[in-house]
Amino acid sequence: MPPLVLVPAAALLVFLLFLGFHSIYRPMLLGALSGALCFFLFALLAVRPVESRAGQTAWCTVTVETDAEPSYQEGSLRGTLHVTQCGGETADFRMTCDSFPGASPGERFTARFQIEELENSIYLMTYKSRGVYLQAEYLGGYTSETPSHALRFSLLALRRELAGALRYWMPDEEGELEAAVLLGHKNALRDSVQDTFRTAGISHLLAVSGLHVTLLCGIFSFGYRRRFFRPFILLRAVLVLFYMFLTGLPVSVLRAGIVFLLSLAGDFFLQPSDPLTSTGVAALLIGLQNAYAPCDVGFQLSFCAVLGVQLAGTAVQWEQNAAAEKLSRFPEPLTEAFWRLAENLQVAVLASLATLPVLVAQGMTASGVSVLSNLLVVWMLQFALQLGMLILAFSVVPFLAPLAHMASLVLSLWLHWMIALAEWCAGLPLAQVDLPRRYTLLVLAVLALLAVLFWKRKRLLLYLPAAALCAILAVALGVRAQQDVVRILMVGASNNPSAVCIQNGRALVLFRGGQSNLRAVTTCLAEHGAPELTMLIDLRQAPSDLDFGTSQIVCVEELSEFSTLPVLDGLTLDLYHKGSGNLAVLGAGDRHVAVMAGNIRLVQPVSVDVLCAAGALSESVRADSIVYCSASPSWLEKATDETLLYSFSDPVITIRPGHSMIFEEVEHVALQ
């Protein structure tokens, strides 16, 4: 299991063992031990037999799964392959492949593959949470087989057809958004809309979740407590199941669907249902079918968010009981509006706080305006979902086309306003917050410990001012500690990444690579608080025009052989241009970090502390440490005295000028 899961789990297990003598902790201890045993058995019986096939070269009959998408090679796909025969024997496992012949999911073919273990990358746990434990390289020998007619491929085709119908009746941007929120079809959704919703803290609206399931299936709740209410319950259950399978059974929908079905079962048998227990049952069922499911980010965000929502509901009930006498003298409509507003506010706050540790731990974007944007935008979702269903229903019957036109016009205006509100929230000063990962997790852990202590002493009301004071102090200390600190992030293509240097809310980009690197740099800046871009240094040997939102773009190819520029706050940048390569050396105090494009040849070699390596090394650059992202660069065997630091994610070099230099997201490599 990954350290993020293993360390807290081990700490909880030790804590429960220490308290296991008390009867109140025995169920928790039994649950922790049972979970560890289930994970061990799953790894032994389900995962290890599949991983034992690593290292084989075999003829396999495979089915292209629903996550397949166009690969970097024309006419090929990449994604998950379901293996039904391997080496002439019946098989049943999944493997991922970066490039294989194909046009669409559901195709079956036989070919020769080199099967290997999954490489250690940021997607490792995502693959395992989907039941993929191997990776493969296509070697040729393609032979087409009869396509699969499984239900999931028919539903995928239906989802694409429905998404196309929505885009037909609506403008491009609004149609893409409606297809995403109603059907979970985000393939055509443009990056600008996704970035806007992510910055505003409402990206959960783009992923079908419990909110969508509840709003859609609640349409058929009008038969409850009437004579024929049970048929309506069955109708809602069928609708939930159909919607779950139509959207492809993502974790968020699976969790919401199970909880909703349990609630319907309680209504059917006239028994009360408990949301917290239902959520626990959903987590148990999802975890039993794949013990790696909790390692998926979607699982963590979905369950943390719903726990925050349930906590908000409990808090509102407690507040209503405590303030019943004081508010009894006010008119009932006024008190109902007050409690509705209080509940919506607390749901937004607690759901955001519950998901914050996951976002920070996974290196994802946290928004400082998520509470405001949720209050302004989320209420618009129900009308958007219902109008989308009406458009699809009207479009089926030809003589109802005028009604489809009217509904699409209203929905387009509605979604236009939704996007405008999201853009306004995303443009606020605190929308993009750059939270230091380890420090933020430490502060959250301290706040959680304080909550436990105040709860033990039954002083929860005093916890709020204490937590606020602690948070203010932590922010002040964090801002002071980050003053003048330089963070260098390597982002983009693993074999040729760019470097983004951030200091005191300002940024410098050392650019190399192509369009993918341009997109990666833009995303990196957005995820780190949108610092002011002061300068972009183009290290490419064949530079093309860059539209990067800054007028100060320096092309090294156009400079003399050596030049020096002052950058950021007290830093220097030495630029070298010679022959077939360009070199930039950033000086922060007594530390020097180099980024090279091509293979520069200088009369006198340059000595640096760190080289952010790409596809080649040069004898003109002597580095104490080399940071690289490509799994097996061609120069790796030639490295001798340098400290090699490999990163499968985006490595970060943190420099406190005149003091320390820290490497994050890297691992030391020892050459054999």
The DSSP helix count reads 19
Average pLDDT:
85
- Roughly what percent helix? 40-55%
CATH topology of the domain at 486-669: Metallo-beta-lactamase, Chain A
The parts where pLDDT drops under 50 for at least 5 residues are none
CATH classification, class level of the domain at 486-669: Alpha Beta
What is the overall shape?
A: globular
Strand percentage: 15-25%
Largest sheet: 8 strands, mixed
> What is the straight-line distance between the termini?
27 Å
Q: What is the radius of gyration?
A: 28 Å
CATH homologous superfamily placement of the domain at 486-669: Ribonuclease Z/Hydroxyacylglutathione hydrolase-like
For the biggest β-sheet, the strand order reads: 14-15-16-17-18-19-20-23
Structural class of the helices, strands and pairings?
alpha+beta
* Number of extended strands: 23
CATH architecture of the domain at 486-669: 4-Layer Sandwich
